[in-house]
Amino acid sequence: MLEELLKHDKLGNKEELLFFLFDGIMLSDKQDVLSLQKYCASQIYSIGRSFNGILKLCEFVSFIVVDKVAVLSNKKVFDPDIFQKEHYFQQYHFYERLFNSLKRFGAIEYIFNEGNLKFSNKLNQYYVLENKFPYKFFPIRNLLLSIGFFHSESDLVNHMLIRKEFTDIFQESIIKELGIKRKIDKRITIEELKKVMDIKSEAGKHAELFVLQYEQNRLKEHPTLEKVIRVSDEFVNAGYDIESFTDCDSIVIDKFIEVKSYKEDISFYWSRNEVEKAKELRDKYFLYLVDRSKINEKDYEPKKFQNPYKKIFESEFWKKETENWKITLDQDV
Asked: Which of 36, 85, 231, 302 is the most exposed place for a label (fewest CB within 10 A)?
């Protein structure tokens, strides 16, 4: 959903958004998209150029649900009756919804980070360096400028100031979280490390068996279903965990699955051997991410990524960190 949102360079200005939220979707709990667009454009002509972006933005923050050609208002999240239209963007409700949605998609650190977020002691105000704001998120930047979260001063070049009235809550919801992510390394004993590794190993095995069963159920009509196997126990250097078929029409093994498990935050270690195998097999290689907290839920499905080498290493939404370095002494030294 985030990628779809960022395709729109116009997410609406303050006037357009207020009209959409407090007049447009107030007409009915369920409306035809085209009729809503015509009504909004008839009242504010410029909204016609940004309507699709506004629609996607309001869906992104869960103010509405777009069901094919219908727009359904979600008053549990946004009820126009409890806000004052003229003061809405001076409150934190919209920004809280926007930032929480960006957090959910792992994008908030690209917008606010140690490289671009600063604090002026002179002004007693947070600000963002405009030249370090990621180009990909310019639609978000333009939105925040338009509705007044950011503001600029003519004598402060390259400064997008965050309004002072948001300082405390911004500090609580964004600054504090950035601090939490800078975790201080904790010393652990060999016994503690072994215990952690044993737990991770058992969790990984459980996830692999879950995916094996998932694939066998998916391919239950395949004539050679017995070929769908878990190889990780026997071949630890295979670069993947499970051999499978793309579909029931495949006659040879053509799907190679690496299984990673997680809980809450999606993060995992990807070995050099696994990365190289993913690079080699391309579309035949799949990464299955299994949420350990949901593994026992009925009808739960893992997150699946085909050709993960391309998706991860060519995407800025995946944060890559080098955990180890291989160091070799040059004997001529």
From this structure: 85
Predicted pLDDT at 305? 92
Average pLDDT over residues 299-304: 92
Distance CA 99, CA 176 (A): 13
Tens digit of each residue's pLDDT (9 = 90 or more) over 311-330? 887 766 666 666 555 556 66
- Both tokens assigned to 101: 């949605």
Residue with tokens 């991860």: 312
Specify whether the backbone of 151 is left (phi greater than 0), alpha (psi in -120 to 50) or beta: beta
Report pLDDT digits (tens) over 165-178. 888 888 887 887 77
| 3-state percent helix, strand, coil for the chain, nearest multiple of 5 | 45, 15, 40
CA distance 22 to 81: 9
Residue 113: in which H helix or E strand, if any? none
CATH architecture group of domain 2-75: Orthogonal Bundle (1.10)
Q: What is the pLDDT of residue 74?
A: 87
Q: What confidence category does residue 258 fall into, taking pLDDT thresholds of 50, 70 and 90?
A: very high
Strands 159-162 and 229-230: unpaired
CA distance 121 to 140: 26
Please state whether the predicted TM-score (pTM) of the whole model is above 0.85. no
Domain boundaries, the chain: 2-75, 100-181, 190-313
Distance separating alpha carbons of residues 117 and 114, to the nearest angstrom: 6
Query: Hey, what are 72's tokens?
Result: 């359904």
SS3 state of residue 265: strand
Q: For the chain, how far is it from start to end, CA to CA, in angstroms? A: 54
φ and ψ of 134, to 5 deg: -60, 130
SS3 label, residue 193: helix
Whether residue 178 contacts residue 113, with contact meaning beta carbons closer than 8 Å, is answered with: yes
